[in-house]
Amino acid sequence: MDQTFASAGTGPGIDVGKVAALADEVLDWRFKALPDAARGVRVRDYLATGPTLAGFGTPLLTLDGAAVEHNVRTMADWCAKAGVALAPHGKTTMAPALWQAQLDAGGHGITLASLPQLRVARAFGVRRILLANTLLDPAGLGWLAAELAADPAFAFASWVDSVESVRQMDGALRAAGAECPVEVLVELGGPGGRTGVRGVDAAVDVAAAVLRAPTLRLAGIGGYEGALAHDATDDGLAAVRGYLRDLADLHGRLSAAYADDAPPVVTAGGSAYFDLVAEELAALPEAAVVLRSGAYLAHDDGFYRGISPFVRGAGDAPFRGALHGWARVVSRPEPQLALLDAGKRDLPFDEGLPEPQLVRGGPALTGTAARVTALNDQHAFLRDAGDLAPVGAVLRLGISHPCTAFDKWALIPVLDDASAAEPKVTGLVRTFF
């Protein structure tokens, strides 16, 4: 392994040829809502026909291309000014074409959360990967060791949060005959959070175990502040700051333990509190501070719209909601109730219900009494839309929480302008969940 996760590296961070080859995929029954004219046709050839949104069926999920470009550029510019690196969380989209856009904008690498996601990234030649999880699967560790040995340009780091996880990783890597040490970051958790060792003293003990394991290399520390708060109240922000200060304390405690060949990685930061991460950690001495925000690329019209740092004054150009659902009114069984043909199988619902925004080719719904009150598997309950949503009308819906939207769609049309009377389809984004 010629580079560490913290090292700068050169060249593209992904195999652009393999990403480009996605345009040669033949469209077929696997992909929801495609027009009949697209079936049996390669992606590039279908896009060359100049398709429009009207040709697609419902339910449907789309991306607004201009909003995606704005969000990617805005986040990259903010990170550059804040003096932090960005390894966006690829689990949000699992879309190599979108990963490439993030890497082309200056992304340091791609963050992932599981072994299957890691395999997808390596299939597309992603060169620098942070696994924000502990990899304990022996077969997976054997595969990883082989990947690192076969590709000196591949830089990888994962988390550990206990002496026992260190022991198991070391044992599996020894059994696999690992030729080079695997970089690991000690994960610090917090009370009521998810994974992560509880307390700085215990984290120091985990780091000491890593130093004793010949198959591992202590490369830094990390964690996730978003598990400790779910809002932007004073108490929520204080909990996040307190956790980040513990992370800074741990960095200081471990400063003498790191190797000298690369700066230690200090990583935190989802899409809700990355401003606080930069404020608390960017000035740490001799540290490579890496954010892992991922949802910013699509943003949303719900959870992140209400909690984003840019809403709280961290930036001048707020993110734009780029994800939209499209659903047709299929029933009006009561005067103030309409049933749409999109439900839990199609749209996210874990961080808020879809938001009615407009009728395609018709009036705006934002600011009216129209609202979605529930989702079944295949239906959305739209109430109080009055005469604005007759049977057959197609509605655009704002989406809350992109992390549970992309996984429902293997192919997502990209529109030139989701607010246009007749949006043009300019791309088709392939996902791999």
TrEMBL record:
InterPro entries: D-amino_acid_metab_enzyme (IPR051466), D-ser_dehydrat-like_dom (IPR026956), D-ser_dehydrat-like_sf (IPR042208), PLP-binding_barrel (IPR029066). The lineage of its organism: Bacteria, Bacillati, Actinomycetota, Actinomycetes, Kitasatosporales. This is Alanine racemase. Residues 322-416 form the D-serine dehydratase-like domain. PANTHER family: D-SERINE DEAMINASE, ZGC:162816-RELATED. It holds the Pfam family D-ser_dehydrat. It comes from Kitasatospora aburaviensis.
